[in-house]
Amino acid sequence: MFFFRMIFRSFSRQFKRRLLIAVTVCLSATVSVAMLGVVFDVGDKLNAELSTYGSNITVQPKADAVVNDLYNTGGDANSNASGTSESDPTTFLKESDAPKIKTIFWAFNITNFAPELNIHADVNCASESVDSSSCKASGVPIVGTWFAKTLHMDSGESTVAGMNGMRSWWKLDGSWPKDDSAQGLIGTTLASKLGVTKGDTVTLYKTTADGSRNKQRIAITGIYDSGDGDNNAMYIPSSTAQVLANLPDSIDKIEVKALTTPDNDLARKASKNPNALTQDEWETWYCTAYPSSIAYQIEEVIPGSVAKQVRQVAALQGDVLQKTQAVMVLMTVLSLVAAAIAVANLMAASIGERGSELALLKAIGATDGAVSRLMLAETAVISLIGAIVGALLGSGVAQIVGHVVFGSGITMRPMVFVLVFVLLTLTVLIASFSSIRSILGLKPAEVLHGR
């Protein structure tokens, strides 16, 4: 009876040790799979999340870009929606060329774009509810653009582009105007200045280059709050602005939102001078979704254009992505280190309790290698079970992280599981090294005689 009780106690102690090793490996695998799964899929999700806060590439006429570089203005040389300049543009791109953006190699990475014609006009209210004598303003920034324009491509595909998706952070009281209509949006600052509310109608007056004075009645469908100087502007359909300014098929800017890969040394080298790249570097750069390579391809399809990345947005995307990935990789490394320490201690304790058993095996002829392989095989089987369970749990945790943080699931790549299993194998081997050394140091005669 005493003999069986001793065997049961020994088995119970060893079962607990083995269970703890399995749980330790399971937890490490869970953290590693979850973190690395997010790391490999976080790039596109972060870029998509950050791209909701504005364009990361702007396209403008080449002459304007030369002026910007010459005087270091860092922006559009012409008027803009915030009204920082009251001069109208003098060089233009063709609005009919804008859909060509969706024909470049990285067309599927272009999530949205919107052409703009930035002009200035005088505004006069034409509403019975507003005193027109006091409702006047001169030199108001007017932006002719698309709101939700459906484009039918030569490939047979259709896409929707416009400000509706480009200005997702705007607070809009009302509804978006229809394209190719006499409708518009007005900023909160300008609306307050004019005393205009949604549903009112205003009249725009514009003196064109040939000296004629055109006018256009605009029905206000909504009032927007952008949170910046853009609130002093009015947005109307591009076709309406072109008629008002007598500038058919003309735009002076295209804002582009694209999913991009953060810049590295190759991308920075290419942005300075693509012609300085070797053939291999060129192919790598051109076939990677860097902001500079996408901008270069846009220039190829839009005649007379210069496409530039918005440095602040591009830098933010790269910086946030690198820091997020660094944190997750660090958590993975720490979990593996903790697993190595725990497995090493548990194996050492197990060998200490099983010293007599191992010594007996050596006494009856088992070599040090055979005993070591026995212990490694036992640990490997236990660790494999823990790793498989941990991989399944880690996949679930990754999905939870994806839905909570990004609002969508994480795509688990096979590479993640292969990498985690390789890392866990190395971790268990390193943790077992010190324990194997203690097995080699066992002397059967001394152990069996209790010395």
From TrEMBL:
The keyword Transmembrane applies. It comes from Bifidobacterium pseudocatenulatum. Keywords: Cell membrane, Membrane, Transmembrane, Transmembrane helix. The keyword Membrane applies. It is found in: Cell membrane. Belongs to the ABC-4 integral membrane protein family. Its main location: membrane. This is ABC transporter permease. Residues 20-259 form the MacB-like periplasmic core domain. The chain crosses the membrane at residues 326-348, 381-406, 412-433. Residues 330-443 form the ABC3 transporter permease C-terminal domain. It is a multi-pass membrane protein. InterPro entries: ABC3_permease_C (IPR003838), MacB_PCD (IPR025857), Macrolide_Exporter_MacB (IPR050250). GO terms for molecular function: transmembrane transporter activity. GO terms for cellular component: plasma membrane. It comes from the Bacteria. It holds the Pfam family MacB_PCD. PANTHER family: ABC TRANSPORTER PERMEASE YTRF (PTHR30572:SF4), MEMBRANE COMPONENT OF TRANSPORTER-RELATED (PTHR30572).
